[in-house]
Fold each of these.
Amino acid sequence: MKVLISADMEGVCGVTSWVQVMPPELGQEPSSTVEYERARLRMTREVNAAIEGAFEAGADEVIVNDSHDGMRNLIPEELHTEVRFISGSDKELGMMQGLQEKVHAAFYVGYHAKAGTPAAPLAHTWTGYVNDVRINGESTGEFGLNALIAGHFDVPVVLATGDDKAVAQVKAYVGKQVQGVVVKEGYSTFSAIHLHPTKAQRLIKEGAKKALSKLSDAKPKRLSKKSKIELEFDHQSRADQCLYIPGIKRAGERAVSFVASDALEMNQIFRALIKASRVQMSP
Ligand SMILES: [Zn+2]
C-alpha cells in the first residue's frame, strides 16, 4: 500500500498568521524568519506523525508532496527517513503531485478552510483574491479541487488534519470516510485555541492509522463529465482578463465559468485562470 501526503501549512498547530507561513524574502525582518522556521519544523513533525501512522497501519511506501506557497517548506533532514518527498512549485498536479506514482490513499495534513469561512485561521482558496470556487453549484476550497484530482486517479482522500472548520468542510465535501484530526479551533481569521503540538502530532499519528484501517470502505470523489466550474474573484478586472482564454465565460460581475470534461482538465484550466487573473489593478 502506497500513501501520498499533501502537506499544507496554514492548518498546522500553532499557526494563525501569514508571518508564520511565508518564507522570508531578502531584507525581511529577522523576527518573521524565526516564526516561519518554527512553523515549518512543526509542519514537518506533523507530516512525520502521519507517516508513522501510515507505516504502522501497513503502508509499504509513503510520499509527501510539499503543497504550500513555493513548496519548499518541509525540512528534509527532519523528515522520517523512509519517506520520499516532492518539493518545488510548477508541478503538473500542484498540491496533488505524486498521484502519478500509483498511490492507494491520500492524506491532507495542515489544511485550511475555504475562502470566506468565518472563525477559520487563514481561510482562503488558492490566493487572497479568489472569493469562491463552485463546482456544479457547490462551493468548495482547495480540498475539494484536490479530492477530485485524486478521484481522477481512483485515489480516495482518507485523512484531513487542520483547524475545526477545515476538517468539517473536507468531511462535508469528500465524505464521512475522511478521518479528521482537529489540531486547533479557530476564533477568527487570525486567532485560534490550539492543542499542544506534541499532542496534535500524537493524534495525527492515530488518525492516520485509523484512516488506513478503513481504506477498503473509502470511495474516490469523482468529477462528473461536463462539470461546470465557477471562479469568483474580488474584482471585475480579474474576470476581464480570464475572458481572453477560449472557452471561458463571464458568470457574473466578478466571476467566470468553464466546463471541464474531467478533473485533469479542470485543474489545468483553473490554474491558467489563476495566472491570468493576477492583474495589476492600475495597468
Ligand atoms: Zn498553504
Amino acid sequence: MKDVFEFGSRVREDFPLLKRQVRGKPLVYLDSAATAQKPIQVIEAVKNFYEKFNANVHRGVYSIAEEATAAYEEAREKVARFINARSPREIVFTRNATEAINLVMYSWGLSNVRRGDVLLTTEMEHHSNLVPWQNLSKLKGAELKFVGFNEEGFLRLEELDNYKDVRLFAFTFASNVLGTINPVRELVKYAKEAGAVTVVDAAQAVPHMPVDVQQLGCDFMAFSGHKMLGPMGIGVLYGKERLLEEMEPFMVGGEMVKAVDFRGSEWNEIPWKFEAGTPNVEGALGLAAAIDYLERIGMDAVRKHEVKLTEYALDTLIRIDGFTYYGPSSPEQRCGLVSFNLRGIHPHDLAALLDEDGIAIRAGHHCAMPLHSRLGIAASARISFYIYNIPSEVDFLAESLKKIKRVLEA
Ligand SMILES: Cc1ncc(COP(=O)(O)O)c(C=O)c1O
C-alpha cells in the first residue's frame, strides 16, 4: 500500500479543498462519484479566462473574443483526443451527462422512434439514463425493456437473446451503485446485430479509465466534466458524425443557426447546431485543464490507483461485523466505488455520524431507485475514490464505522 499512499499523497497537494478541516477533523472526502474535487490547475484555468480574455465566443472580431473562441474550440479538440473521437465535430458541449442523454432522446429519439419499437436499457441505470427513455417510450408509444443483473451485479447477457429487433440500447459503462464495469464492446456488437443505436452513459467511466470511442464502436456517449476534476455545468455528448448530421437540434436560438430570415432558419454545422446560446466557456476551459491534469498522470495510472484502493477497502471493510456490499467481488471488474449497508443502521444515520468524524460519504438511493428495489433495499451508503484518496482514509472510515457500531449497539 506504500505506493498507493505515495501516489495519492502527491496528488492531494494540488487540491486546496482537501486541506480543510470539517468539525475540527481533516476532511476525508469519499464522494467523488457524486462530484470530484478540483486541482489548483483547473481553478487557475477558470480564473485565467476571466482575468485575461473573457469575451463571448463565435461572434466578436476583436482580439480577446478571438482568443476566447480559439480556447473554447481547443478544449473541444482536447476532449475529442481524450476519448479518441474521429473529429471534434463529434463533440457537443452540454451542461452535464443528463443533458447529453436528453439531447439524444429529443433530437434523435423523437424523429427515429416509432410506435411499437423496442427501447432497451438495463436494471442498473442511474435515473439520468432511465427517465429519458421512459419519457421517449411514452411520447412515441415505444416499448421499454430491461436487461437484468445477477447476484454478483453483472448484466444477465443471456437475456439479450430475447431482443432481436431493437431501436435503441442505452446502458451504463460503469454502475454508480454496483460499481460493475460493463462489457461495452460486447454490448455494442450485440446492439449492431439487433439494429439498435447505442447510448453509453460513461459518467462513471471517462473520469476513471482509458476510454476509446472508436475501439468501443458506440454511437453516442455521455459524461460530465465535474466528475473528472472539471467545473460543474459542463458535460459532453459524443456522437458519430453521420448521426449528428442527420439529427434535428435539441434547442434553438442564437449561435446554432447559419442564416435566419423572418420565415425560417438554416441550422449551423455540427457540433454548433446543438449549442444554442452562449456556451459555458469557463467550463470548457476548466475541463480542458482537467484533461491535461489527468493525461499528465495517465489514465492507466488513475485506474490502477483506484483498483488498489478498492481492493484495500473491500478487504478492510468486510472484516466489520454486519457489513454487506453490493456488486462484483473482484476489484478489477468494478470502478472505484463501494455501496454497502451496515446491519441495523440506516445509511442516512451512518452518513450523518461519519460526518462528525469529518468523513463525507453518500447515502440514499444514489439516483437509482429501481436498482435498489431490485436489490431489495431502500437505500445504501456509498464510498467512492479518486486519484487523491489514500489508504489511511479507508482506515479512518473503518475505525469510525466500528465506533458507530459500538455506540449504537451498547
Ligand atoms: C452513472 C451516472 N450517470 C449519469 C449521472 C448524471 O450525471 P450529471 O448529474 O452530472 O448529469 C451520474 C451522476 O451521478 C451517474 O453516476
